[in-house]
Structure formats: C-alpha cells, structure tokens
Write a structure and sequence with these properties.
It contains ten helices and 17 strands. It is an alpha+beta fold and 331 residues long. The protein has three domains: 102 residues, 3-Layer(aba) Sandwich (Rossmann fold); 146 residues, D-amino Acid Aminotransferase, Chain A, domain 1; 63 residues, Dna Ligase, domain 1 (2-Layer Sandwich), CATH 3.30.1490. The protein has a seven-stranded mixed β-sheet with strand order 6-5-4-3-2-1-7. Strands 12, 13, 14, 15, 16 and 17 form a six-stranded antiparallel β-sheet that branches. A four-stranded antiparallel β-sheet has the order 8-11-9-10. β1, α1 and β2 form a beta-alpha-beta unit.
Length: 331
C-alpha cells in the first residue's frame, strides 16, 4: 500500500475550488492500492486533515506527518492545488528537492504555463495562433490610446498569472478600460490585454494515460455571460457540451494542436487547453496544468466520455509519478 498525500488549498483566490477538487480525488482513490491523506496547504498552515477534521502539522523538512503515534512518510503527492503554490512550480520544485514524486508537470513547465505571457511567447514561433496582446507591469506608464489601437475594442483585460477567471474583465469602451486594469492588478502585478476573439470556445484535456499521450474528447463552452467567467464555470451559468459540436476536421486540428503543445513543452500529468475557433482556425488562450477535478469539472467530464473512470484517471496519475521515481527520471 502506497501512502499518497493529496495536496489542496493553496494561497490564491482559487483555494476553495482546490479544496473541492482535492476532496473528489480523496474519495475516488482505490482503497486497495493507496492510503490517501488530505493535506491542506494554506498560507497560515500546512496540515493533514483526518476524517473528523482534526489537523496534524506537516513537517516541512521532509513532508512527513506525526499521526496516531507514528510518522507517516509519503510515497507520492497528488497535486490538486489550483494557482500558487501548486500550479506555478513552487510545490513541484520543493517536492523534487526532497525526493517525493508528484502527479503534475515539473517545476519549469508549471512556472512557464502559469505565466500566460511567457507561455504564448514560447509557442508563437511554432505556429500556434494566439490573440493580439499587450502586457503591462504594475507601475508602467499606461497609454490607453496606443494599447486600444493595437488590440481593438472590445478586448479582455486579465491578470497574467491567475485562474478561474478571477480579475478578468471584458472591456467594450475606452471609458471602462482603466477600471478593468485596476481589477486585474488586484490579482497580479502583471496584466495582459488581449484582442476579443469572436468564435466558438472549446476546452481540451491532454493527459499521459498508461504511458501514452492521450487527447480527451473536446468540450464546447457556451455561456450565458459575456465570457466563460467564474459564474459560468462554477455557478451553473454555462453549458459544457462534450463532445463539442464542431466538424471532424476541426476536432482533429484542435486535438493535434493540443497534443503538439503538450509534447513541445515536455508536459507530464494533466493539462487543459482553451481555444477559440475563428475563421476555421483554433487560437490558443491558455493552458492549465492543475485543472479542476471535481466530478463536474471539464477534464473529469471528458475522461468519462473517453470511458475513463475517476479512480482510473487519478490512479493513473499516481502510478506515472511513482514510475518517474523508479526510473530516476527526475529524482
């Protein structure tokens, strides 16, 4: 039996969603294979939480925990932290340093993909289409006229490093631009201004399943709101249609693009990419390396359509992490 710590929570606005994802993983791991433990990684504490909600401090020296008279050491970590420090490379680097394998990508890929600006900059030379964009760092002089002439209206103003659509605004006229900038800067000290792409939005999961890079069925995102924002994602104000209502040709084009990105970046673990189809071409918006894992989240939905159960999906991720250690790939 392998001891598996499911890390959840985090330091960002996404911590509550992460706790939901982590609990779903906890409830769906094969009890005959794994001793699963919930570990809350929060700004004020790192604790293992038992079934009765009792908390036991994590020893950050070796990521062990004293529980019921014994010291538990973990064979692997299942990473369910959305945002920092689970999706930006910090936990990945820490766990690699102390020699514990984990289920998401490595620290470099995590840091790169968490930074929307850097991710898109790396992919553009490979012919991956993206929106016209402009970057602003906190403290920069902001020339509204020049920025809006470049990206056009409407446009999106979004934090460069955040998830779950926190801090994103759709700006339709110049008068609302600076207010949107202020909202975005509340989430991050770097922001991204992007041209509005008018088309069908889709989301596609790519995973390593049983040692093979596998593209899951594509999901079409239809929202009642201006865009696929927090309410659309988590409060039911959207329709997620899997498989997407797109042609076989477009399905293949998006699947091959998503797989190519996964392989170009030397990704491991889970990924979920968002695209908007404009004039029969997919434009990439972003890539998430710790996507939502609740029963209704997009990647679990896609896995179900592919005939993969949650215990299979989560167990596969742990087995690949354990293999990584035995082959000494990174540890």
């Amino acid at each position: 039996m392998k001891n598996v710590a499911i890390i959840m929570g985090g330091y960002s606005s996404e911590y509550q969603i992460s706790l939901l994802s982590g609990d779903v993983v906890y409830r769906n791991l094969d009890e005959l294979k794994y001793n699963a433990y919930r570990v809350h990684i929060l700004k004020e504490k790192w604790v293992m939480v038992d079934e009765d909600s009792n908390e036991y401090p994590i020893n950050r020296h070796d990521f062990s925990v004293a529980y019921k008279g014994t010291i538990i050491h973990f064979d692997a970590v299942f990473n369910a932290i959305h945002g920092t420090p689970g999706e930006d490379g910090l936990m990945q680097a820490y766990l690699e340093l102390i020699g514990i394998p984990q289920t998401s990508c490595n620290y470099y890929q995590a840091a790169l993909t968490f930074n929307k600006r850097d991710l898109l900059s790396v992919l553009k030379p490979f012919g991956i289409k993206t929106a016209i964009s402009h970057y602003i760092n906190l403290g920069d002089a902001i020339d509204e006229e020049a920025i809006l002439n470049k990206v056009g209206l409407p446009c999106f103003v979004k934090p460069n490093k955040s998830g779950s659509s926190f801090g994103i605004s759709k700006v339709k006229n110049k008068a609302d631009f600076m207010a949107a900038v202020e909202v975005a800067f509340k989430e991050d000290n770097e922001i991204l201004v992007e041209s509005f792409l008018d088309g069908t939005e889709v989301s596609v999961g790519v995973i390593n399943y049983g040692g093979k890079v596998t593209v899951l069925p594509i999901t079409e995102l239809v929202t009642e709101n201006e865009f696929f924002d927090y309410d659309a994602k988590y409060l039911g104000k959207s329709e997620e249609i899997t498989p997407a209502r797109i042609s076989d040709e477009m399905t293949n084009k998006i699947a091959s693009t998503a797989k190519r990105v996964y392989e170009l970046l030397k990704m491991e673990g889970f990924s979920r990419s968002e695209f908007i189809i404009v004039d029969n071409e997919p434009y990439m918006l972003e890539l998430n390396t710790v996507p939502g894992l609740t029963t209704e989240s997009i990647v679990p939905q896609q896995a179900r359509k592919a005939g993969i159960t949650l215990p299979q999906l989560f167990g596969n991720a742990i087995e690949l992490a354990l293999q990584k250690k035995t082959t000494n790939q990174h540890y």
